[in-house]
Design brief:
Elements lengths: L2 E5 L3 E6 L5 E5 L10 E3 L6 E3 L11 E2 L21 H5 L2 E6 L7 H4 L4 E6 L4 E5 L5 H19 E2 L11 H4 L24 H14 L4 H7 L4 H9 L2 H22 L1
Parallel strand pairs: 6-10
Antiparallel strand pairs: 1-2, 2-3, 4-5, 7-8, 8-9
Helix pairs in contact: 3-5, 5-8, 6-7
């Protein structure tokens, strides 16, 4: 009887080639149950995850600062700043881009790299031959990265969703008024503001999508679909949920 054995890091499968039966033996060090559910981009269900060796998930916190413009003295988070205010907090480098695009693309240093000094977040753009357009693209990407990585504190006892969050919620939300206008999607530059506010809430409720949905007048499924509408948002929520799960697991060990 011919046998073939496949070795994988997490489990061992022994296949009997002339029979339909398959025997499965779990790896002795694999946890019997998943520690935390994940959001899957291919469906609205929650999927299990397995533990990896690197589960550190670091968040930056929005600091209070003043600007030198007409809003001087007001407390604003970085993503709330205008393009001019945000650029003043950045170091900009230019370089010659590589890759496809022809010789004209690489003759000038048209690619732009922006480093946000207060947070250390870096964004770059090189797809256009115009340095001006690349700078605008890099700034938009930097704003989105700040929204994903920089958190504001949330007082759950007195929580009221900010307008920018209400604007990205689906119309079925019970707390979304008609004055919010049409729902803002991921392709709208204003989506970053709502995305940051949503992540702030999910962070405050320890990564629980169902709990966050209650504060937003939505079902868990409706909020899950909103999260899944943007790949970066989905990944950040899953990373956050994983970090919370691992902290819980470590405390039990």
């Amino acid at each position: 009887m011919a046998h073939k054995t496949l070795f994988k890091p997490s489990l061992i499968l022994t296949l009997t080639l002339n029979k339909t039966a398959i025997s499965l033996s779990h790896h002795p060090f694999r946890r019997s149950q998943p520690p935390f559910p994940f959001l899957n981009s291919h469906s609205n269900s929650l999927l299990p995850t397995t533990r990896t060796s690197n589960h550190t998930h670091t968040h930056l916190w929005c600091s209070k600062h003043s600007t030198s413009t007409a809003v001087e003295g007001s407390e604003k988070c970085y993503v709330d700043l205008t393009d001019e205010e945000l650029m003043r907090q950045c170091e900009m480098d230019t370089f010659k881009s590589s890759g496809p695009g022809g010789q004209h693309r690489n003759k000038r240093e048209s690619a732009v790299r922006l480093k946000h000094v207060p947070t250390g977040i870096i964004a770059q753009a090189s797809e256009d031959r115009s340095q001006h357009k690349n700078r605008a693209s890099a700034l938009n990407r930097l704003r989105s990265l700040i929204a994903l990585k920089v958190r504001k504190t949330v007082d759950l006892e007195a929580y009221s969703p900010p307008r920018e969050l209400l604007q990205i919620l689906p119309p079925k939300s019970s707390i979304r008024g008609s004055d919010c206008g049409p729902q803002i999607g991921p392709n709208n530059p204003k989506f970053a503001l709502g995305m940051q506010a949503l992540l702030d809430l999910i962070f405050a409720v320890e990564g629980s999508v169902s709990e966050a949905a209650k504060y937003l007048g939505l079902s868990t499924g409706a909020l899950s679909r909103l999260i899944l509408s943007d790949d970066s948002l989905r990944k950040e929520v899953n990373d956050l949920r994983a970090s919370k799960a691992y902290l819980l697991m470590d405390s039990l060990e």
